[in-house]
Request: fold
Amino acid sequence: MSALKSLSVATAALLLAMPVTSFAQPERDVKTEEANRALVTEFYDQFFNEHETEQSSRVLAQDYIQHNPGVPDGKAPFVDYFAGYFKENPDYQSEIVRSAADGDLVWLHVHSTNGDEDRGEAVVDIFRVEEGKIVEHWDVIQPVPEDSANDNTMF
Reply:
């Protein structure tokens, strides 16, 4: 028997002897996921559209973790940062186009603009929720271009 054939037979035997691993996902808690999604979308609308930074921030954890490199960690620094931003940019708005939740994560696909003439940015915000508080945030931000190589929108 050739070395290659022997190796193939040995590999097949080894694979057949391995225990079967289940790739089944754990059962989802849709009620909690939906509560997390509602918490995040309500916070987002109040904070980024109504610019209600104090009241809406009640759902942020004190030790809130921020992954956007331009925004500080912590609840108070986050609120202070955006209170100043909204003062300088009173026309800033963020339309939630779609949202989803999975486990403790909530995703938002957002069209943010700073006035009627602004084409804006396409944003994906990801929030982690723990015990009814927003504890962590990531985002990916992309400008909406004037011209596109296709006829699809970013939303």
Q: What stands out?
A: The first strand starts at residue 60 and ends at 66. The first helix runs from residue 3 to 17.
